[in-house]
Amino acid sequence: MHRRLFYILIAVLLPLCLCAQEQDEAVSGPKRSKRSNGVYTGFSGGMMVHGGYLFADSPDRIFSNTGLGNLDYVKGLPRDGFCYGLGGTLRFHLINHIHIGAEGFVSTMPLMKTGSNVRTGWGGACIDLYANWGKVRPLIGGTIGGGTMKRLFVPDRSNGKEYADEDDTKYNASYTRTPFFMLDPYVGMEIGLTNHMALMIRVDYLLPFGNMKTVLTEGTEDWKNYMSPSGPRLYVGIMFGEMNKR
Fold first, then answer.
1. d(CA 157, CA 89)
2. Structure pTM?
């Protein structure tokens, strides 16, 4: 499903870039100035890769699974790590200072070198404010929407520890899938490369809120619970569109 989303974004962005170039050649200078003074001042979109560092208060918050085994084993599990991923965004420019649009991303946090991982996919509506400092455009904004956090735990039998008590059910692996509502504040900048292309650099901090209770998890945590792991991510990508109308 995530690959399909990326293909759709690419299929949408390429025609938009070609359209922008044709309009750039067809519109004269005075006419362009008149259009740029209106509410709509252009559009842009592109793909971004990211890397980040995620963490949680305790290992059981990482996996959200009380069936992992005895307390000593759970304490030895990781509670932080690096993540990587990619995604895309499509935006319209308003009054030469506002971006409004939609975006979606997928991020994977590998753990334990056993195949265990936390994979997060999210998307929603984004809006930010930007300034025009020549070819550099600083921006600040956020995204609101939702997503899913998928947690796969594969035990490491090479450490010689038992991962479950004798009287408990022993899991070879566990998998949980938790939907969430999210807020994603970010800051960044665009550096103009050409009239139709810019380098995007952005830092965000995803804030997911969901129901941590699953079939394998005890407790009464509700939808308002702040989920983890979470942490900062750095994004780098190329944006295409009507950059020359800013």
1. 42
2. 0.79
